[in-house]
Amino acid sequence: MSALVNLVVMTGMLLVVPLGLRLAGVPGGTRRIWAAGAVAGAAALWLPRGPAAVALAACYAAAALAVAARAPRRRWRADAAEAAVALALVMPLVAATALVAERGGLHLFGFSLRILSLTVAHFHFAGFAAALIAGLVGRTAGPGRRAAAASVPLGTLVVLAGYFTGEWVEFAGAVVLTAGMWLVGWLTWRDVRPAGDRAARALLLASSAVLAATMVLALWWALGEASGLVHPTLGWMAATHGVGNALGFGLCGMLAWSRVKRDTEGRRRA
Protein backbone atom coordinates (compact mmCIF):
# COMPACT_ATOMS: atom_id res chain seq x y z
CA MET A 1 0.00 0.00 0.00
CA SER A 2 1.12 3.59 -0.57
CA ALA A 3 1.80 5.79 2.44
CA LEU A 4 -1.13 8.06 1.51
CA VAL A 5 -3.60 5.19 1.34
CA ASN A 6 -2.23 3.86 4.63
CA LEU A 7 -2.89 7.20 6.33
CA VAL A 8 -6.41 7.35 4.91
CA VAL A 9 -7.14 3.82 6.14
CA MET A 10 -5.68 4.59 9.58
CA THR A 11 -8.01 7.60 9.83
CA GLY A 12 -10.90 5.22 9.32
CA MET A 13 -9.66 2.54 11.67
CA LEU A 14 -8.54 4.71 14.57
CA LEU A 15 -10.85 7.75 14.40
CA VAL A 16 -13.89 7.48 12.14
CA VAL A 17 -15.07 3.98 13.03
CA PRO A 18 -14.63 4.38 16.83
CA LEU A 19 -16.63 7.62 16.76
CA GLY A 20 -19.25 5.95 14.60
CA LEU A 21 -19.59 2.91 16.83
CA ARG A 22 -20.39 5.17 19.76
CA LEU A 23 -22.98 7.02 17.66
CA ALA A 24 -24.51 3.70 16.61
CA GLY A 25 -24.91 2.68 20.24
CA VAL A 26 -22.51 -0.26 20.03
CA PRO A 27 -21.73 -1.51 23.57
CA GLY A 28 -18.47 -0.56 25.22
CA GLY A 29 -17.12 -4.12 25.23
CA THR A 30 -17.39 -4.39 21.45
CA ARG A 31 -15.86 -0.93 21.06
CA ARG A 32 -12.86 -2.02 23.12
CA ILE A 33 -12.47 -5.11 20.93
CA TRP A 34 -12.51 -2.81 17.91
CA ALA A 35 -9.88 -0.52 19.45
CA ALA A 36 -7.47 -3.42 19.97
CA GLY A 37 -8.11 -4.81 16.52
CA ALA A 38 -7.73 -1.40 14.90
CA VAL A 39 -4.28 -0.94 16.44
CA ALA A 40 -3.26 -4.32 15.04
CA GLY A 41 -4.74 -3.47 11.65
CA ALA A 42 -2.95 -0.12 11.55
CA ALA A 43 0.34 -1.84 12.31
CA ALA A 44 -0.31 -4.38 9.54
CA LEU A 45 -0.51 -1.57 6.99
CA TRP A 46 3.16 -0.65 7.45
CA LEU A 47 4.72 -4.11 7.52
CA PRO A 48 5.95 -5.90 4.40
CA ARG A 49 3.49 -8.43 3.03
CA GLY A 50 3.90 -11.74 4.81
CA PRO A 51 2.87 -13.82 7.84
CA ALA A 52 3.31 -11.06 10.43
CA ALA A 53 1.21 -8.57 8.47
CA VAL A 54 -1.45 -11.23 7.82
CA ALA A 55 -1.61 -12.15 11.52
CA LEU A 56 -2.16 -8.53 12.52
CA ALA A 57 -4.72 -8.04 9.75
CA ALA A 58 -6.52 -11.16 10.98
CA CYS A 59 -6.79 -9.58 14.44
CA TYR A 60 -8.39 -6.59 12.77
CA ALA A 61 -10.77 -8.91 10.89
CA ALA A 62 -11.77 -10.57 14.17
CA ALA A 63 -12.63 -7.16 15.63
CA ALA A 64 -14.62 -6.30 12.49
CA LEU A 65 -16.50 -9.58 12.86
CA ALA A 66 -17.40 -8.67 16.45
CA VAL A 67 -18.82 -5.36 15.20
CA ALA A 68 -20.70 -7.04 12.34
CA ALA A 69 -22.27 -9.45 14.85
CA ARG A 70 -24.13 -6.46 16.35
CA ALA A 71 -25.97 -5.78 13.06
CA PRO A 72 -28.66 -8.52 13.31
CA ARG A 73 -29.74 -7.11 16.67
CA ARG A 74 -31.05 -3.92 15.06
CA ARG A 75 -34.66 -3.43 13.91
CA TRP A 76 -33.51 -3.17 10.30
CA ARG A 77 -36.44 -4.97 8.66
CA ALA A 78 -38.98 -2.31 9.62
CA ASP A 79 -36.92 0.87 9.43
CA ALA A 80 -34.74 2.20 6.60
CA ALA A 81 -32.59 4.22 9.01
CA GLU A 82 -31.86 1.17 11.17
CA ALA A 83 -31.13 -0.87 8.03
CA ALA A 84 -28.53 1.74 7.03
CA VAL A 85 -26.92 1.60 10.48
CA ALA A 86 -26.93 -2.21 10.40
CA LEU A 87 -25.23 -2.21 7.01
CA ALA A 88 -22.64 0.27 8.31
CA LEU A 89 -21.69 -2.21 11.03
CA VAL A 90 -21.00 -4.89 8.40
CA MET A 91 -18.88 -2.74 6.10
CA PRO A 92 -15.64 -2.88 8.15
CA LEU A 93 -15.71 -6.65 7.71
CA VAL A 94 -15.56 -6.17 3.92
CA ALA A 95 -12.58 -3.87 4.42
CA ALA A 96 -10.92 -6.34 6.78
CA THR A 97 -11.33 -9.24 4.36
CA ALA A 98 -9.64 -7.21 1.63
CA LEU A 99 -6.87 -6.23 4.05
CA VAL A 100 -6.07 -9.81 5.03
CA ALA A 101 -5.88 -10.81 1.37
CA GLU A 102 -3.79 -7.81 0.36
CA ARG A 103 -1.32 -8.24 3.24
CA GLY A 104 -0.92 -11.89 2.24
CA GLY A 105 -0.37 -11.08 -1.42
CA LEU A 106 -3.53 -13.00 -2.36
CA HIS A 107 -5.42 -11.78 -5.45
CA LEU A 108 -8.82 -12.34 -3.85
CA PHE A 109 -11.51 -12.95 -6.52
CA GLY A 110 -8.89 -12.04 -9.09
CA PHE A 111 -8.51 -8.42 -7.95
CA SER A 112 -5.11 -6.75 -8.07
CA LEU A 113 -3.40 -5.96 -4.78
CA ARG A 114 -3.80 -2.23 -5.47
CA ILE A 115 -7.56 -2.58 -5.95
CA LEU A 116 -7.75 -4.56 -2.71
CA SER A 117 -5.85 -1.84 -0.86
CA LEU A 118 -8.26 0.79 -2.17
CA THR A 119 -11.19 -1.44 -1.21
CA VAL A 120 -9.94 -1.32 2.38
CA ALA A 121 -10.11 2.47 2.30
CA HIS A 122 -13.38 2.62 0.37
CA PHE A 123 -15.40 0.52 2.81
CA HIS A 124 -14.36 2.57 5.83
CA PHE A 125 -15.84 5.73 4.30
CA ALA A 126 -18.20 5.06 1.37
CA GLY A 127 -19.18 1.93 3.28
CA PHE A 128 -19.20 2.53 7.04
CA ALA A 129 -19.27 6.32 7.36
CA ALA A 130 -21.71 6.96 4.51
CA ALA A 131 -24.22 4.32 5.61
CA LEU A 132 -24.03 5.35 9.27
CA ILE A 133 -24.50 9.05 8.57
CA ALA A 134 -27.38 8.21 6.20
CA GLY A 135 -28.96 6.25 9.04
CA LEU A 136 -28.47 9.10 11.51
CA VAL A 137 -30.03 11.54 9.04
CA GLY A 138 -32.86 9.06 8.53
CA ARG A 139 -33.57 9.14 12.25
CA THR A 140 -33.66 12.91 12.65
CA ALA A 141 -34.28 14.82 9.40
CA GLY A 142 -37.57 15.86 7.82
CA PRO A 143 -39.09 14.95 4.43
CA GLY A 144 -36.73 12.90 2.30
CA ARG A 145 -35.03 11.13 5.19
CA ARG A 146 -36.26 7.66 4.21
CA ALA A 147 -35.00 8.05 0.66
CA ALA A 148 -31.61 9.18 1.98
CA ALA A 149 -31.43 6.30 4.47
CA ALA A 150 -32.28 3.76 1.77
CA SER A 151 -30.36 5.09 -1.23
CA VAL A 152 -26.90 5.23 0.34
CA PRO A 153 -26.81 1.55 1.44
CA LEU A 154 -28.39 0.56 -1.88
CA GLY A 155 -25.77 2.45 -3.86
CA THR A 156 -22.97 0.95 -1.78
CA LEU A 157 -24.26 -2.58 -2.40
CA VAL A 158 -24.62 -1.97 -6.15
CA VAL A 159 -21.06 -0.62 -6.29
CA LEU A 160 -19.89 -3.76 -4.47
CA ALA A 161 -21.83 -5.91 -6.95
CA GLY A 162 -20.18 -3.98 -9.78
CA TYR A 163 -16.77 -5.20 -8.59
CA PHE A 164 -17.84 -8.67 -9.73
CA THR A 165 -20.21 -7.96 -12.63
CA GLY A 166 -18.69 -5.08 -14.58
CA GLU A 167 -17.91 -1.37 -14.77
CA TRP A 168 -21.38 -0.28 -15.92
CA VAL A 169 -22.98 -1.84 -12.84
CA GLU A 170 -20.37 -0.11 -10.72
CA PHE A 171 -21.20 3.16 -12.46
CA ALA A 172 -24.93 2.63 -11.79
CA GLY A 173 -24.08 2.10 -8.14
CA ALA A 174 -22.00 5.28 -8.13
CA VAL A 175 -24.99 7.20 -9.55
CA VAL A 176 -27.31 5.89 -6.83
CA LEU A 177 -24.72 6.43 -4.11
CA THR A 178 -23.95 9.95 -5.30
CA ALA A 179 -27.62 10.91 -5.42
CA GLY A 180 -28.11 9.48 -1.95
CA MET A 181 -25.07 11.23 -0.50
CA TRP A 182 -26.07 14.56 -2.02
CA LEU A 183 -29.51 14.10 -0.44
CA VAL A 184 -27.87 13.26 2.89
CA GLY A 185 -25.76 16.41 2.67
CA TRP A 186 -28.74 18.60 1.85
CA LEU A 187 -30.94 17.15 4.61
CA THR A 188 -28.09 17.48 7.08
CA TRP A 189 -27.71 21.16 6.30
CA ARG A 190 -31.45 21.79 6.15
CA ASP A 191 -32.69 19.89 9.19
CA VAL A 192 -29.88 18.80 11.50
CA ARG A 193 -27.83 21.95 12.18
CA PRO A 194 -27.93 22.67 15.94
CA ALA A 195 -28.73 26.37 16.33
CA GLY A 196 -26.57 26.97 19.41
CA ASP A 197 -23.44 25.04 18.45
CA ARG A 198 -21.32 26.90 15.93
CA ALA A 199 -18.63 24.24 15.91
CA ALA A 200 -21.13 21.52 15.04
CA ARG A 201 -22.64 23.68 12.31
CA ALA A 202 -19.21 24.36 10.82
CA LEU A 203 -18.31 20.67 10.87
CA LEU A 204 -21.61 19.70 9.26
CA LEU A 205 -21.14 22.35 6.58
CA ALA A 206 -17.61 21.13 5.87
CA SER A 207 -18.75 17.51 5.72
CA SER A 208 -21.65 18.28 3.36
CA ALA A 209 -19.61 20.58 1.09
CA VAL A 210 -16.69 18.18 0.75
CA LEU A 211 -19.09 15.34 0.07
CA ALA A 212 -20.71 17.23 -2.82
CA ALA A 213 -17.31 17.64 -4.49
CA THR A 214 -15.83 14.20 -3.82
CA MET A 215 -18.87 12.39 -5.19
CA VAL A 216 -18.51 14.26 -8.50
CA LEU A 217 -15.02 12.78 -8.69
CA ALA A 218 -16.43 9.32 -7.94
CA LEU A 219 -18.94 9.66 -10.78
CA TRP A 220 -16.25 10.88 -13.18
CA TRP A 221 -13.96 7.97 -12.34
CA ALA A 222 -16.71 5.33 -12.57
CA LEU A 223 -17.96 6.70 -15.90
CA GLY A 224 -14.43 6.78 -17.28
CA GLU A 225 -13.78 3.19 -16.21
CA ALA A 226 -17.01 2.02 -17.87
CA SER A 227 -16.83 4.05 -21.08
CA GLY A 228 -13.12 4.55 -21.67
CA LEU A 229 -13.41 8.33 -21.43
CA VAL A 230 -10.56 10.30 -19.89
CA HIS A 231 -10.78 10.15 -16.09
CA PRO A 232 -8.54 10.56 -13.03
CA THR A 233 -5.93 7.97 -12.17
CA LEU A 234 -6.26 5.88 -9.02
CA GLY A 235 -3.38 7.80 -7.45
CA TRP A 236 -5.07 11.12 -8.15
CA MET A 237 -8.38 9.79 -6.80
CA ALA A 238 -6.66 8.66 -3.59
CA ALA A 239 -5.15 12.14 -3.12
CA THR A 240 -8.43 13.99 -3.76
CA HIS A 241 -11.51 11.83 -3.38
CA GLY A 242 -9.89 9.61 -0.75
CA VAL A 243 -8.38 12.30 1.45
CA GLY A 244 -11.47 14.50 1.10
CA ASN A 245 -13.80 11.70 2.16
CA ALA A 246 -11.53 10.66 5.04
CA LEU A 247 -10.98 14.07 6.60
CA GLY A 248 -13.67 16.35 5.18
CA PHE A 249 -16.63 13.98 5.09
CA GLY A 250 -15.89 11.10 7.42
CA LEU A 251 -13.98 12.68 10.29
CA CYS A 252 -15.78 16.06 10.25
CA GLY A 253 -19.12 14.29 9.95
CA MET A 254 -18.48 11.98 12.90
CA LEU A 255 -17.21 14.83 15.07
CA ALA A 256 -20.27 16.91 14.18
CA TRP A 257 -22.73 14.11 14.90
CA SER A 258 -20.98 13.42 18.21
CA ARG A 259 -21.64 17.02 19.21
CA VAL A 260 -25.25 16.78 18.00
CA LYS A 261 -25.76 13.61 20.04
CA ARG A 262 -24.20 15.17 23.15
CA ASP A 263 -26.40 18.25 22.78
CA THR A 264 -29.54 16.13 22.32
CA GLU A 265 -28.78 13.97 25.35
CA GLY A 266 -28.08 17.09 27.43
CA ARG A 267 -31.48 18.56 26.56
CA ARG A 268 -33.19 15.30 27.46
CA ARG A 269 -31.54 15.21 30.88
CA ALA A 270 -32.47 18.85 31.46
Structure at a glance:
The chain is mainly α.
Describe the model.
This protein has helices spanning 3-23, 28-46, 51-68, 80-103, 113-140, 145-165, 167-192, 198-227, 234-269. It is mainly alpha-helical and 270 residues long. The chain is globular. The protein has one domain (3-265). It is built from 9 helices and no strands. The mean pLDDT is 88. The chain crosses the membrane at residues 6-24, 53-71, 83-101, 113-135, 147-165, 171-189, 201-223, 235-257. It comes from Actinomadura parmotrematis. Pfam families: YndJ.
Walk me through the topology.
Elements: H1 3-23, H2 28-46, H3 51-68, H4 80-103, H5 113-140, H6 145-165, H7 167-192, H8 198-227, H9 234-269
Features:
270 residues; mainly alpha; globular; membrane
The rounded distance between the terminal residues' Cα atoms is 49 Å
Sheet of most strands: none
Would you list the SSEs in sequence order as H and E? HHHHHHHHH
Count of discrete domains: 1
Secondary structure tally: strands: 0
Helix content: over 70%
Query: What's the total helix number?
Result: 9
**What percent strand?**
under 5%
Uncertain segments: none
The average pLDDT value, as a whole number, equals 88
